[in-house]
Each structure stands twice: as structure tokens, then as C-alpha cells.
Design a protein that fits this description.
The protein has about 130 residues and is an alpha+beta fold. The chain is built from two helices and four strands. The strands form two sheets. The protein has a two-stranded antiparallel sheet. Strands 3-4 form a two-stranded antiparallel sheet. A hairpin with a 7-residue loop joins strand 1 (about 50-55) and strand 2 (about 60-70). Helix 1 packs antiparallel against helix 2.
Length: about 130
């Protein structure tokens, strides 16, 4: 049982780390502009999300991966940019910093809860070993 609890806790810690990394990347690139026309230059930064799914197949825990967020760039006036179109518009990523900060804070609490679970599973394993010894 404690090995299962350990794997669940560790995968939870990894998922929380991925969520924090995604939020951090989105915040860091909030002003990364690009061309609105994909044929005219590089696209603006595409926000990402960390998505977790149950491992399944009798295993315990979650598997986390990064996926691009389904959002379109926002047109912003910046005629001096090298990415500006004929109207002086560039594409900016559609990122809400407040939402990203909430995601980062949630990741902190998710990590702490998973770390606590790992600690408890470790204590359970030690107690079982002491009883058998």
C-alpha cells in the first residue's frame, strides 16, 4: 500500500511542478509578440497548460504533459515592431496574468499536499519495517 501511496505522491509532485512551469512560462512570455499572418513571420508565443491524466493499467498516479492552449493571439497596435502588419498590428499571446498567478499558487499547494503524502507513506513503510524486524 505504501509503495502505491509513494508513487501517487511523487506523481502529484511532478504534476504540480509541471503546472508551475507552465504558468511561469506563460507569465514570462506575456509580451512575446509575433506576426498575425503566419506567412509573414513567426507567430506570437502560444500559451501552454500542464494536463494530467490517470496512468491507469493498474498503476497509481498521474502522467502530466504540456499542451498548447487553444487560444488565438490578440491584435495589439505596435507599428514600430518588426512583426507589424500594414495596419501596425502585431499578435500578442492571450494570457491573463492573474489566472496564471492563481495557477502558480495552486501548484504550490498541490506540491505541498503531495509531499506530505510522500512523507506519510514513508513513515508507514518505516513502521511496517520496524514491526517485522
Amino acid at each position: 500500500m505504501s509503495i502505491s501511496a509513494l508513487s501517487i505522491g511523487i506523481s502529484g509532485m511532478q504534476a504540480a511542478e509541471a503546472r508551475l512551469n507552465a504558468a511561469s512560462s506563460n507569465i514570462a512570455n506575456v509580451r512575446t509578440a509575433g506576426s498575425l499572418d503566419p506567412n509573414a513571420g513567426p507567430a506570437p508565443y502560444q500559451p501552454i497548460d500542464a494536463v494530467s491524466v490517470d496512468i491507469g493499467s493498474g498503476l497509481s498516479g498521474v502522467m502530466t504533459s504540456y499542451q498548447p492552449r487553444n487560444s488565438k493571439p490578440v491584435a495589439v497596435s505596435d507599428p514600430d515592431s518588426g512583426y507589424a502588419d500594414a495596419n501596425g498590428m502585431v499578435g500578442m499571446p492571450d494570457i491573463d496574468i492573474a489566472s496564471e498567478m492563481v495557477s502558480a499558487l495552486m501548484a504550490r499547494y498541490e506540491f505541498a499536499a503531495s509531499a506530505k503524502m510522500v512523507g506519510i507513506a514513508s513513515d508507514m513503510q518505516k513502521t511496517a519495517t520496524d514491526i517485522l524486524a
